[in-house]
Specification:
The chain folds into two domains: 120 residues, Lipocalin; 71 residues. By secondary structure, the protein is an alpha+beta fold. It is rod-shaped. The protein is built from two helices and 17 strands. Helix 1 packs antiparallel against helix 2.
Length: 244
C-alpha cells in the first residue's frame, strides 16, 4: 500500500501486516476432570503402631505447677525408652509428648492426660492425637509433687486485721455512754474530752476491717498448685490405639 499526502521527496512506507496463527485448543474430555472413585469397602483402616495398654518411660523436659482448680496447663515430655507392646518393643526413643496437667491437693499429686505425640516414621516427622495417662515412680496414677498454697499467709493477715478492728471498736465503745429513755430510744453520748480518742479508735477499726476484707479476697483468689520438677522420670500408658 502507498501512503498518500507525503511531503515532497519522502519515500513511501510500505506497511507489513503480521499474520498470527491461532491454534484452537483441543476439546477436553470429561474423563480428564473426573476423580477416580474407589469401590465401596476398599477404604483402608489405619495401621496400628501402638495398641492400647502399651507403656513406656518418659522424662519431663520442663517443670510444671499443676493447678488444683481451674483449667489444665500443658506439659512437655520426652520418651526415653522403647514403647512396650504385647508383641514387641517399639523404638519411639526421642519422641515428644504433650500432656495436660491438673493438681490434687489431697493426694499431693499431679494428674497428667496425654494429648499429642510427635515421632519419626519412615524419615517423616508425624504428630498424632493420643489418649493416655502418666504413672509415677510409685506405680500409681499421678505423680507425687510438692504442694504450694500461699493463701495461709493472707488469711493470717486477715485475722490480725480483724483483731485490730475489734480492738478499735472496743476502745471506741469504752469512751461512749448509751442511755435509753422511756420510749425505748437510745442516745449515744461522747465525753468532749475523749472525742479525739473515740475518733482514732473508730478510724482504726474501720481501716482494719477494710484491710481484713482485702486479704480475705486475696486469699480466695490464690489456687493451690502441685509442683513437678523438670527431669522427673515417669511412665506413660496408652488408653487407645495409636494408628498411622
Amino acid at each position: 500500500e502507498i501512503q498518500e499526502g507525503l511531503p515532497p521527496g519522502e519515500a513511501p512506507i510500505e506497511k507489513k501486516h503480521s499474520k498470527i496463527k491461532v491454534v484452537e485448543p483441543q476439546s477436553m474430555k470429561s474423563s480428564d476432570t473426573t476423580m477416580p472413585v474407589l469401590p465401596p469397602g476398599t477404604e483402608q483402616a489405619g495401621k496400628v503402631l501402638v495398641p492400647a495398654g502399651s507403656f513406656g518411660r518418659v522424662r519431663f523436659l520442663a517443670g510444671v505447677y499443676a493447678p488444683c482448680e481451674g483449667p489444665e496447663i500443658p506439659v512437655l515430655m520426652e520418651v526415653i525408652s522403647p514403647i512396650i507392646t504385647p508383641k514387641e518393643r517399639k523404638g519411639f526413643i526421642g519422641s515428644f509428648i504433650i500432656g495436660s496437667a491438673v493438681g490434687d491437693e489431697s493426694s499431693k499429686s499431679a494428674f497428667i492426660r496425654l494429648e499429642k505425640i510427635s515421632f519419626l516414621y519412615e524419615d517423616t516427622v508425624i504428630t498424632k492425637q493420643i489418649k493416655g495417662w502418666v504413672v509415677g515412680d510409685d506405680g500409681k496414677y499421678g505423680i507425687r509433687g510438692k504442694v504450694h498454697d500461699r493463701s495461709g499467709k493472707y488469711l493470717a493477715y486477715a485475722i490480725v486485721s480483724s483483731f485490730a478492728s475489734g480492738v478499735g471498736q472496743a476502745v471506741s465503745l469504752a469512751y461512749t455512754s448509751v442511755t435509753q429513755n422511756a420510749f425505748g430510744q437510745t442516745t449515744t453520748t461522747i465525753d468532749k474530752n475523749n472525742i479525739a480518742k473515740v475518733a482514732a479508735a473508730s478510724g482504726i477499726s474501720t481501716a482494719a476491717g477494710t484491710i481484713s476484707e482485702y486479704y480475705m479476697k486475696k486469699a480466695s483468689k490464690i489456687i493451690p498448685v502441685v509442683e513437678v520438677e523438670a527431669g522427673t522420670i515417669a511412665d506413660i500408658v496408652f488408653l487407645e490405639d495409636l494408628k498411622i
